[in-house]
Design a protein that fits this description.
Helix 1 packs across helix 10 and helix 12 runs antiparallel to helix 15. The chain is built from 15 helices and 13 strands. The protein is of the alpha+beta class. The longest helix is centred in the middle third of the chain and has 18 residues. The chain is globular. The strands form three sheets. Strands 3-2-1-4-5 form a five-stranded mixed beta sheet, with helices on both faces. Strands 12-11-10-9-13 form a five-stranded antiparallel beta sheet.
Amino acid sequence: MEAPWCALEVLYLELEIILLNAIKKQYLYAILDIETTGGKFNEEGITEIAIYKYDGHTIIDQFVSLVNPEKAIQAFVVRLTGINNNMLRNAPKFHEVAKRIIEITEGCTVVAHNSSFDYRILRTEYNRLGYDYKRNTLCTVELSKKLIPDQKSYSLGKLCKAIGIPMSDRHRASGDALATVQLFKLLLEKDSNKSIIESTIDHFDSKKTVEKLHKLLKSVPTTNGIYYLHNDTGKIIFMGKGANIKNEATLQFLKKTNRSKKVQEKTVSISYEETGNELITLLKYALELEVNDPKYNLRSKKKITQNNFNNDNMLLIDKGRVLDEHAVVLIENNEVVGYGYTNLSFQESHLDILKTLITPIENKPLAKTVVKNYLKTKNLLKIVRF
């Protein structure tokens, strides 16, 4: 049960008094794309760069600029990108934007489609300035091969077309970077065991003071979803859910049981996922609890239903996380195949595209039990039978 707001204010005040000082930990990504002059390896120059700072949910900062490479652009690159030497005559040189790039990527994991290329180009430019530029990196090509398997092509344009991500300004830095943001958002949703987040968490000295938990809560929204508490190696040690995950996490941090105190002591960071509605919350929570097996979650054996749905093939549609978005659960041959989100009607009407967007479900009996129990008492926006 959620505490009323007046009570929550008291709880926050209690946290302010009780908990010790420490540093809030965030997960930040610098999602970027770079266009170059082409040419010999490590002799390329940057002609355009776009960086979107992403907190796993929204873009919180951005930098987009043409760059004067101080060298000619190869003809095939001009035809591909539309960027020519005349366009760059008055553009800033790399050393004039270098500080801004360092600032916007500081504390971030650099994410790019074929990150080895973009990261190499950046490091090469900074090496020319005598600066050693280092960031952790993630490649959406490699992540896509793992989380969106069996695609004909993993080039950015063809992959986005196959899974229904709209693109504009193809082969321009801003257009490609924005498409990569949407692709990375989908990959985070599909990453049920949270390996992406765990790989980007810095390791902490276990002897340091426990983080001030009330500061962690400032990043958590008051929306329907799931929150994850991580230890100093990034491992999930506790999962919680609710219609207001900020309230639920607050109450968890204030419990006085021995188990809860251990959770509070070992938690150094918190992440969350908004779900948009109760069905996805219940389904995602039950499935991820099985996958991640957090040490401090109390587990009760769920009775698995043997009954079938009223229809063998259905698409369950409910409200999404934002306006103009739907949450969907796909049922085929009386089994729950997967769940996900759509923002275009043709994604819902074309099963081949829909199946690339949804997160597939392995524990189908558990998923069926959760969905059937929900449908007994709750209504959805729409059910499409086919």
